[in-house]
Amino acid sequence: MEIHLYLRPTRLQTDSAKFVYDRDGNEIEYISKTDGERAVSTYNEHGFLTERKWYMNDKLESVDRYEYETDEYGNWIKQYETNYSEKYRELGFTPSRLVYRDITYYRQ
């Protein structure tokens, strides 16, 4: 299987941080040990990220939500991201990113 990801870079994780994973290996919590930032993530039954809530000093700052289109094998090929910001709460959830993933399957 050949996978091509077209992603924009996200924040660099250069600070000292703690990562918590569930039994399936999904990151469910990120805790910065230097600036009070924390992220809590949830996943659907297929293991796809569905929501990530960002907190600063235990106060909700923003929420990212994800929806997917899958191919005939159940692998996601499009990821739609919407974002909610407490700072601009009157906007509600707004589209923020669309990720395409090309997967090539080879038969043996």
| Sheet with the most strands: spatial strand order | 1-8-7-6-5-4-3-2
Number of strands: 8
What class, by secondary structure content? mainly beta
Q: Pick out the low-confidence regions.
A: 1-13
Q: How many domains would you count in the coordinates?
A: 1
CATH topology: Lipocalin
CATH class: Mainly Beta
Give the biggest sheet. 8 strands, antiparallel
Output mean pLDDT: 87
Task: Please give the structural blueprint.
Layout: E1 2-5, E2 17-21, E3 27-32, E4 37-43, E5 49-56, E6 59-70, E7 76-85, E8 94-104
Antiparallel strand pairs: 1-8, 2-3, 3-4, 4-5, 5-6, 6-7, 7-8
Q: What does this 3D model show about the protein?
A:
The chain is mainly β. It has one domain (17-104): Lipocalin. Helix content is 0%, strand content 58%. It has no helices and eight strands. The protein has strands at residues 2-5, 17-21, 27-32, 37-43, 49-56, 59-70, 76-85, 94-104. The chain has an eight-stranded antiparallel β-sheet with strand order 1-8-7-6-5-4-3-2, with no helix packed on it. The chain starts with a strand and ends with a strand. The model is unreliable at 1-13 (pLDDT under 50).
Brief sketch in words of this structure:
This protein is mostly beta strands. It has strands spanning 2-5, 17-21, 27-32, 37-43, 49-56, 59-70, 76-85, 94-104.
